[in-house]
Amino acid sequence: MSPEASVKLDYFWTDCPDGSHVAVNWAVWDGRISGSVRKWSPDTRVNVGRRFDLAPSELARDEQGRPFLLLEDICVEPIRVPLDPERVRAAESEITPAA
């Protein structure tokens, strides 16, 4: 990424069936999709999180080939976070092949 380029931070919010709240934030940069997911208990007293850092090739794809984050072990069911296909393509183009 060039020094004058900016990194856009994206957010996705959802709730789990148990009433807990989930926030996902991520950025697409340096050929990676990096971010974190945080989960708050329904009463917001407990806040746990974890980081993720994925290459575009590690993303899940829907039936039309659109990329999404598939986050498991947060809610009962996996969370699907849709991603901008153009930004993922840009990340793919930033990857330099191994020499």
Number of helices: 1
Secondary-structure element series = EEEEEEEH
Name the beta content range: 35-45%
How many domains? The number is 1
Rg value:
15 Å
Contiguous low-pLDDT stretches (5 residues minimum) are none
Q: What structural class do helix, strand and pairing data support?
A: mainly beta
Helix content: 10-25%
Shape: globular
Q: What profile does the largest beta sheet have?
A: 4 strands, antiparallel
Kindly report how far apart the N and C termini lie.
20 Å
Write down how many β-strands occur, each being a DSSP E stretch of 2 or more residues.
7
Mean pLDDT, to the nearest integer, reads 89
The neighbouring-strand order within the major sheet is 1-2-3-4
Write a structural description.
- The chain is built from one helix and seven strands, in the order βββββββα.
- It is mainly beta.
- The protein has one domain.
- A four-stranded antiparallel beta sheet has the order 1-2-3-4, with helices on one face. A three-stranded antiparallel beta sheet has the order 5-6-7, with no helix packed on it.
- A hairpin with a 2-residue loop joins strand 2 and strand 3.
- The longest helix is centred in the C-terminal third of the chain and has 10 residues.
- The mean pLDDT is 89.
